[in-house]
Amino acid sequence: MRTDIVKTWADRHHIEITDAQLAQLEAYQEKVLTVNQTMNLTAITDPVDFAIKHIIDSMTLLKYIPQGASLIDIGTGAGFPGVVLKIMRKDLQLTLLDGTNKRVEFLRQVVDMLALTEVECIHARAEEWARTGARYDICTARAVAALDKLAKFALPLVKSGGTFLAMKGAEVTDELEKAKPALIKKGGLIERVDIVEIAEGLTRTIVVVTKAK
């Protein structure tokens, strides 16, 4: 992995990252790319692109997550952003949720390999898992669905006063407008919409939605 790119970005954004964390991120990338040869986990295999579009992209959420939070990453796929967030923040209580069992088994291997603690890997759809009564301080979703659909899946999993972090592309104006009725219905309020640069000329939009108390 291009750890130099990750370290430079982290330093620029005042994020402390240790050599041990960089080594874990590198081991994680190697695992993803090895398994990717036989299982469809990612189309991004170039080391520079992987560092920017998977690792750094996931790290953009760090500033929104309070200490000791419980966090569920829905439709987590290969584990982005959840695994990266856990590597960076050992205090997180993490749940990785995906509807494909093969991916969940892969994630369990990753958790064991990296010796991550307080991590659950769950094979279920978000709406199914919500029916169990499970609730979290933070819910994250990256490239899962349009925001109006995401609101229906994600907000039932968020505690009152908690936060839903939706990772979206550069242009979200129309999507936000369309999503407002669904957000309101599920008790969600758009607190802010941030545009974060992950590399020169490349940005990520983070929609911060608060669940009503």
Q: What can you tell me about this protein's structure?
A:
About 40% of the residues lie in helices and about 25% in strands. It is of the alpha/beta class and about 210 residues long. Strands 3-2-1-4-5-7-6 form a 7-stranded mixed beta sheet, with helices on both faces. The longest helix is centred in the N-terminal third of the chain and has 17 residues, at about 20-35.
Kindly name the structural category: alpha/beta
Elements, N to C (H/E) = HHHEHEHEHEHEHEE
Gyration radius from CA atoms, angstroms: 16 Å
Return residue spans where pLDDT drops below 50 for at least 5 consecutive residues: none
In short, what is this structure?
With 213 residues, the protein is of the alpha/beta class. It is built from eight helices and seven strands.
Provide the fold topology.
Blueprint: H1 3-12, H2 19-35, H3 47-59, E1 70-74, H4 82-88, E2 93-98, H5 101-113, E3 119-123, H6 126-130, E4 136-142, H7 147-154, E5 158-168, H8 173-185, E6 188-199, E7 202-211
Helix pairs in contact: 1-3, 7-8
Question: What key attributes describe this structure?
Answer:
213 residues, alpha/beta, 7-stranded mixed beta sheet, 7 strands, 26% strand
